[in-house]
Amino acid sequence: MDYGLIGKIEKAKIYAAEPERIEFQSFAVTIRGDNDSTHGVSFEDGNWHCDCSFFSTRGHCSHTMAMERVLTVMLPEPVS
Fold first, then answer.
1. Taking the mean position of all CA atoms in its chain, how far away is CA 5?
2. What phi and psi values does residue 43 have, to the nearest 5 degrees?
């Protein structure tokens, strides 16, 4: 039995149960929207980007807001 791996699995469970430990710096996802559309959403250095037309004029959209809701405590606080 690999006792080192068992310890790492237990530590992983603790980390996963405390998502506030995790802070994303960057990532990219694809969100399936309505009408068989897909949109690329990314987060880099505290800034969102989406390839939808609404985001290009407003700086936020349903796709970025959905990701904020999914990730809540894992994103850094916005700088005021």
1. 27
2. -135, 125
Domain residues for the domain of 30 are 22-74
> In 1-80, where does DSSP find H-type helix?
3-17, 53-58, 62-71
In this structure, is residue 65 part of a structural domain? Answer: yes
- Looking at residues 68-76, what average pLDDT do you find? 77
Query: How crowded is residue 71: how many other Cβ atoms within 10 Å of its Cβ?
Result: 15
Residue range 10-36: mean pLDDT, rounded: 89
Structural domains counted in the chain: 1
Dig out the tokens for 52 from the structure: 């939808």
Tokens of residue 60, six digits: 């936020």
pLDDT at 80 over 60: no
Predicted structure pTM score: 0.73
Q: What is the model's pLDDT at position 76? A: 67
The answer to whether residue 17 sits within a structural domain is: no
User: Measured between alpha carbons, how far is 21 from 74 in angstroms, rounded to an integer?
Assistant: 7
